[in-house]
Amino acid sequence: MTMRPLCGVGAAVCLALALREAPPSLAALRELAAALVRPAVLPFAFAGLDAAQRAGDDAEWFARARQITDLLPGWSDGHAVFAYRLALDARPAAGADPGADALRRLQTALAWLDGARATAGPREVDLLLMTAFLPEVAALQQPALAERLRAGGGAAALTDRYLAEAERLRGSAAIREQRTFLAPKLAAGLLGAGDRAEARAVLAAAVERAASVRDQALATEWQQRLAEVLRWLDGDRTVDLTAVHGDPRFAPLLPYLR
Amino acid sequence: MTLPRARGPLRLTFVRCLRAAALPTLLAALAGLWLPHALATPLPGLPSAAGAASPWLQLPLFVAAALCAARAAGFWPLFALRRPGRDVVARLQRGPWRGAGAAIVGALLAQLVLTLPLLTFGARLHGAPATAARHDELAPPPQPALTAATPRLAFTPPARPLASVWLCPLAAPPVGAFVPTRVQLRLDGAVLPGAVATFGQSFEAVELPLPAVTVQRLELEYVDGSVPLLFPRGAVRVVAAGSEPQAWNGAAAAVLLLLPTFAALAFAYLAGAVAALPTVWTVAAVLLFVQTVGGIGPAGDVVLALLRGRWVWPSGTFWHGVPSLAAGSVAMIGGMLLRRGARR
Amino acid sequence: MATAISARQLAVTFAGRRGTAVAALQPLDLEIARGRIVGVLGPNGSGKTTLLRVLAGLQAPTGGVALVLDRPPTDRALRTRVAFQPEGPLPLDVLSAPEYLAWVGAELGLPNATSDARAGLWLDRLDLRSAGRRWIRTFSTGMQRRLALAAALLGEPELLLLDEPTNGLDPFGSEIVMQVLRERAAAGATVLMASHQLLEVEEICDEVLLLQDGVLRARGTLAELLGTGAQSLVVQGLDADGLRRLGDAARGLGGEVLAVEPRRRHLFALFRRFAAPPGDSRR
Q1: What ipTM was assigned to the predicted interfaces of this complex?
Q2: A40–B contact, CB cutoff 8 A
Q3: Which of B223, B242, B261 is the last residue of a domain?
């Protein structure tokens, strides 16, 4: 007896079980097609990135970069590199207001990185940390952008938001300390935006968090200086701010401590 | 109606290549149209550019070229050693290449038939503009640096009305404090009002519109700034006024895209004098890949020019095909001589 | 009689490993008259194929000289006058049999109508019509050999150089091929065939060349090479006593009885009876 009919029946049963377990969907078909063409398309996509760079065509470069991250959604480093470049290096549109243009690019870059979180998998926290420092770097590099961000509490407010999310996902000591040391900048931004109460809350929280800084000497020093600033903001003009004035980490706050 | 029976190596190879490559090329073309939309995650605020679609257009073009080349090399026995019936073919076939040349032409014609619709009509579906404009890269002067010490660079544009000029210089490290360098455009010695571009770093392309007149001399004049600028070949490009039909542009692109396949098959033929079919196929595949993706050859530039709406026929892009043509021709002659030596 | 093939001191040496030389064909002299069927016999590696390839112009001799139809073998004019059928699979095996013959006809410079007419004739004659539009690579070995012979015959050549023409053929196929070769020889063509099928060579060849290690060990007609001087008398209807008396009579006439054995039919007769389809005239 030939085995062919038995094999056919076996194959049909396996297929039916597979379809029951994982019913076909457009998304699955799309994923399959993408997996098949990805090796063929990516070399062209990367070569095209260079071509766009040589031609000085920003629009094409970013469209290609987006295409590459669409093909490699889990490549969080790639998302970060392209988004940083969009926020920092892209040329302003001709005739556009530099601040508005920089803000638009930063918002687009942050949206890019936010979108990448869904596919970053175990690297989501790393992606969040890379995202966190983008607003600060962009604001440092483009004063017009810093001006635009002032009303919302400055770049540090955005940074803190991403650090908070990273801390929520992975409460590592390093992330907690980064947020603690960001407090002067964040408070300065809030004071600049006129939100004195929120600035005070940030500093108060930082005083509490400073206790958990791993370097005990640094923890004590930081806690002490934050407390002095807090007392000054509460109206205590007897507090001695000499140490704070001499500490570059508190430089953003100095305009509000006179 | 029955078609006349294919009898010679050209027509036989043409038919076989067409049969082998038609369906995969069609599937690749459909995937190239569907997948960019299916995979794209829209991002408001990100600019779009037709040129960015080039990988999706190159996919079916590469499939067509690779399959035609593979089929031709596998079909015609004289492409490789130890192929069945080599003696029969070598004895019957006339001409210096014993039919291998005709087989290559057959493969190229099949590729042309497959890629012509992709490049004339398919490119439009990928966002290529309806018309193309002539772009000419201007030859740089011997010392292409623009600085305070050498404040003028002169270029000679082609004798046709121009619509604009693109400047995309390389920037050297600034001399002293960083101040972007401003460049003023002069036409036939006269300052063009408002035509000032500012450059602070490399690869910043700026387009300056021109009055649609014929210009004999185009000059770049240093105004101020601390960034020395270099204008090598390709850094100054003029766009002609008026437009050309994109269908002809696609046809020209299809012809130019034959050159990498020709070079790949010619080197495969050369390798086949001493190697068997797997090696011959590998040589063809690697050469095709290197010429298409590696930028050695016209393929990448041609597709980009088409999607960006640049006229490819005779332009810098067109001349990028010459090395492939020359290298392929030399390989064909080498393959012929090697085989002739082997018979002695 | 006109000469189809002549060779003087014809030799072929291949370069071996580490600079050694392998003599595929030791210097040999050869003359083959037109219209003859000549078999080339010899064990594997004896130089049969090399000899055919040299005469077909595919292999340059390293010594001596050969003339085929009074021209050097590499003369392009011989392309149509001499047909060469090598051993092994056919080229262009993704073509059908009619397509393959159309290509051969075109390369021989035959007008399309003539080529197609002759192709049709040989496809029928060599029993290949049933293959239809199937690719050659799906053919059995025997079908491929028959198609190769059809291709060789398409140009009506004056000289046929055949390497193992019946290898892999069933007895019917061999019979057709033998018949066709006899017809071509009768029409004036010369056939030089290398073969391991000794019975077929014995049946069809006028002359035989025996090669061993590239050396021509013997050549001549079958009568010259196989003749023993004895004659045989075939009788029927005698019993044992009759046979004994016939032997005595032969001895009385000065002869000698070498063997008395029953006469059998050829095995092919039995094969034909069982393997040919019902109604086939070959049964």
Answers
A1: 0.80
A2: yes
A3: B242
